[in-house]
Amino acid sequence: MGNSGDLPSNEEVSPHRARDVAGFIAAMRELKKRSGLTYRELEERAACRGDVLARSTLADVLRRTSLPRPEVVAAFVHACGDGDRADAWLAARDRIASARPTAGPAADRGAVVDMTWVKASPVEVRSPAGEARSHAGDVRSRAAKARSRRAKGAAAGAATALAVPMLALIAWGLLADDADDSDEPTASASAPGGWVTIRPARTADLCLTDGRDRAGAYESAVAVQLRCAKAPVPRTYLEPRGEDLYRIQWHHPEMGKGCLAVMGEKQIKGMLEPRQDCEHATVFRLEPDDGAFRLRPAAGDRCIGIVDDDTAVGAEAIEEPCSGAADQRFLVRPG
Fold first, then answer.
1. Would you state the torsion angle of the CA atoms of residues 271, 274, 276, 278, taken in this order, to the nearest 10 degrees?
2. What is the 8-class DSSP label of residue 316?
3. Which residues contact 48 (CB under 8 A, 6 or more apart)?
4. 57 and 216 Cβ atoms separated by less than 8 Å
5. CATH number of the domain that 290 lies in?
6. What CA–CA distances, in Å, run from 76 to 6, 70, 93, 270, 332?
7. In what helix (H) or strand (E) does residue 21 lie, and over which residues does it extend?
8. Which SUPFAM superfamilies would you find in this protein's record (predicted)?
9. Are residues 203 and 312 in the same domain?
10. 114 lies in a domain?
11. pLDDT band at 7; cut points 50, 70, 90
12. What domain range is 169 assigned to?
């Protein structure tokens, strides 16, 4: 457990030393470290003041390279026990915000981009898939020259004809967004326990992972579909609870372990939220379905699908009536 969060005066963290966003976020991380408080304790201290400081939101803020909203900064500073200097922190934040260029150089410098709210970014343009496209063009160019040199006889022409589809297959593989995500799903009669990825069967390059509801109705994390290559954390673990029954655990390097639970709050009823109280989290039944699985809460007759049958990045998982629709089929792969 952390201490009271009141910083000794001789150990104050100065936000005025920050010259850019990265420096400001580093100062916030240092303030949290000096406070000795956990994310949960900071959330509770903020709530005592009437502030909203969701621990999952704070964890996102401290690992990003973008400025947090002023109200988040104020709630965080007060919760850390440095409330007397809240105005100084906000002034430093405003100074850095006013000095930032309007274009997107952070992405150009290779900064991590939050794909839950950016639909396209320079990072994706510079991805290995882009390099693969260039390499595929070289392959096709070299193949065309080779075919021209060998097109002197019927036998050579036949060999070239056989080579063309092979080269097309190579180029197709290189053009895939993610080499690790291009594997065909393997049919299985039962879900693999342990570390896995859970992917909508229609969009196998997406994984169910930590995100936010797109309407902004809820501060904490919910399960959404994001590109697997862009969402290495949290890791997903299937905890067996009986025949074809599992708890779905998320393991985060900062937030720790949480287990997915179907939510009952009116504004986002049916969405999935990671909760630290795993004993009272939802137990899911994984029903085999032609190489994929239907994901069903064990206590009930409903299924997990994707909101509005959506295939978009960032679409939320939700409990809904079982319909046999494609959005209710998921691939479970060892991961």
1. 70
2. B
3. none
4. no
5. 2.80.10.50
6. 13, 10, 13, 30, 38
7. helix 21-35
8. Ricin B-like lectins
9. yes
10. no
11. very low
12. 128-176
Phi, psi of 5, rounded to the nearest 5 degrees:
90, 0
Pick the more confident residue, 155 or 283.
283
Read off the tokens for 256: 């720790």
Closest CA to 249 of 217, 281, 219, 218: 281
The neighbour count for residue 144, using CB atoms within 10 Å, is 12
Residues 159 and 206 grouped into a single domain: no
| Residue type present at position 229 | A
Cα angle value 79/11/97 (rounded, 5°): 60
Scan for tokens 């969402």, then name that residue: 231
Question: How many Cβ atoms from other residues are within 10 Å of residue 313's Cβ?
Answer: 19
Give Cα 46 to chain centroid, integer Å: 26
The total of structural domains in the chain comes to: 3
Look at the pTM and tell me if it is higher than 0.90: no
Question: Environment class of residue 304 by beta-carbon count within 10 Å: exposed (0-12), middle (13-18) or buried (19+)?
Answer: buried
Looking at per-residue confidence, does 181 or 202 come out higher? 202
Residues 264 and 313 grouped into a single domain: yes
Kindly give, in sequence order, each residue whose CB lies less than 8 Å from that of residue 281, ignoring residues fewer than 6 positions away. 247, 259, 260, 261, 275
Show which of 54, 80, 100 is a domain's final residue.
100
- H or E element in which residue 166 lies: helix 154-175
Phi, psi of 40 (to 5 degrees): -65, -40
Show the tokens assigned to 300. Answer: 């009930």
Q: Which two tokens stand for residue 73?
A: 């900064």
CA torsion, points 311, 235, 60, 316, in degrees to nearest 10? 20
In a domain, 107, yes or no: no
Could you tell me what percent of the chain has a pLDDT over 70? 69
Alpha helices in 36-127 (DSSP H): 39-48, 55-63, 70-79, 86-99, 105-108, 122-125
